[in-house]
Design brief:
The chain is built from four helices and nine strands; from the N terminus they run ββααβαββββαββ. By secondary structure, the chain is of the alpha/beta class. Its EC number is 2.4.2.7.
């Protein structure tokens, strides 16, 4: 399936000079949605995964689907102040700003194998922060999955040492 045909470019969003990769056309098509989930799941064959971490907010779309198929738990990583229980935090820099992510302090147990999933790997700041959060809790990041990797932004360099898989690369 040509997944790229379901991604549209939105110029100057969220700020001038940025070309946003909009995945909503892919999400709107039930066959493309199912096949995308299957392709992302294929990246994990023969892997032991205890938890799937989804990154706020579009990482929440496929991460729970992957967790269910892998018979693993789903862990949301959210922007600061959005989780109701005791959290662990990590600051990060992304392509158009700064932020802080949080994870519940009891979400991952020491030694658990963790798949990190987000929609886009851009500059790598968000994914790097998520991996640090997982490791703060004693988890082992076994792979970082993305729907899209924007290779020209060099985000994979910040994830040096972690296996990275992306369905689409630009």
């Amino acid at each position: 399936m040509d997944f790229g045909s379901y991604i549209r470019d939105i110029k100057d969003y969220p700020k001038p000079g940025v070309v946003f990769k909009d995945i909503t056309p892919l999400l709107n098509d039930p066959i493309a949605l199912r096949k995308t989930g299957e392709a992302l799941l294929g990246f994990t064959s023969n892997m032991q995964i205890d938890k799937v971490v989804g990154v706020d907010s579009r990482g929440f779309i496929f991460a729970p689907m992957l967790a269910e198929k892998l018979e693993a738990g789903f862990v949301p990583v959210r922007k600061k102040g959005k989780l109701p229980f005791k959290t662990v935090a990590e600051s990060y820099v992304l392509e158009y700003g700064e932020g802080e992510l949080e994870i519940h302090a009891d979400a991952i147990q020491p030694g658990e194998k963790v798949l990190v999933h987000d929609d886009v790997l851009a500059t790598g700041g968000t994914a790097q922060a998520v991996c640090k959060l997982v490791e703060k809790l004693g988890g082992e990041v076994v792979q970082c999955n993305f729907l899209i990797e924007l290779t020209f932004l060099g985000g994979s360099e910040k994830l040096n040492g972690y296996p990275i898989r992306a369905l689409l690369q630009y």
